[in-house]
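Design a sequence for this backbone.
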């Protein structure tokens, strides 16, 4: 049986493809307070602003490509059973070729009914007046601040079964996603790849810190894990 490797990815891996993140800019995302464009209250106060904001994010996503870190994970998948749990709402993992991706915070190329929760594929602009089959306004299928994370229990179950956990490009400050680390078994090797690592090895965990950008650190780690053939 192949070993099961779980990969938790954050904004850092997508940033190297050109997708901007708000965590490095004092809480501003493309000039907006994140609560204006990523919360139920923001949507209720100004739905047009929120829809326009995500229309721009969709357009930007179409202009970028997966990078070397995304591609390296495909090489890993050729040798192991790999599940990617991502906090990112882009589709770069899928475009690179990852076959098993869980989007904790939703997907930019999907829309959801504000009432029925019907989810549909959506790659173009989403505007006021665009509705689901039941006639209710559609919204981005994004988990906003203050909303539950529907796939969290699934992610916890998968992490508990991991033989290896790899964490890439995340500040480990966004909860509940950051808590997944605690669900890995104490003897599970954990690799943390980030140029500004926020966690360190300790006596209770087998944490290996690789203080590099995703495009540098992931290919190195993947080559090492493939050579191990554990």
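Sequence:
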């Amino acid at each position: 049986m192949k070993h099961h490797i779980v990969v938790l990815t954050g904004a850092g891996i997508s940033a190297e493809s050109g997708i901007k993140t708000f965590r490095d800019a004092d809480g501003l995302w493309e000039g907006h307070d994140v609560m204006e464009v990523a919360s139920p209250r923001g949507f209720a106060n100004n739905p047009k602003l929120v829809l326009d904001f995500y229309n721009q994010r969709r357009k930007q996503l179409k202009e970028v490509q997966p990078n070397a870190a995304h591609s390296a994970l495909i090489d890993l998948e050729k040798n192991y059973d790999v599940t990617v749990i991502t906090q990112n709402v882009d589709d770069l993992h899928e475009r690179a070729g990852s076959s098993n991706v869980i989007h904790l915070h939703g997907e930019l190329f999907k829309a959801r009914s504000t009432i029925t929760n019907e989810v549909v594929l959506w790659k173009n602009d989403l505007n006021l007046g665009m509705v689901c089959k039941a006639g209710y306004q559609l919204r981005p299928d994004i988990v906003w601040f203050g909303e539950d994370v529907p796939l969290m229990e699934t992610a916890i179950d998968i992490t508990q079964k991991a033989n290896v956990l790899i964490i890439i490009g995340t500040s480990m400050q966004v909860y509940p996603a950051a808590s997944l680390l605690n669900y890995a078994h104490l003897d599970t090797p954990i690799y943390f790849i980030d140029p500004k690592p926020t966690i360190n090895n300790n006596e209770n965990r087998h944490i290996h810190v690789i203080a590099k950008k995703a495009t540098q650190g992931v290919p190195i780690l993947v080559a090492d894990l493939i050579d191990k053939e554990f």
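The chain has a mean pLDDT of 91.
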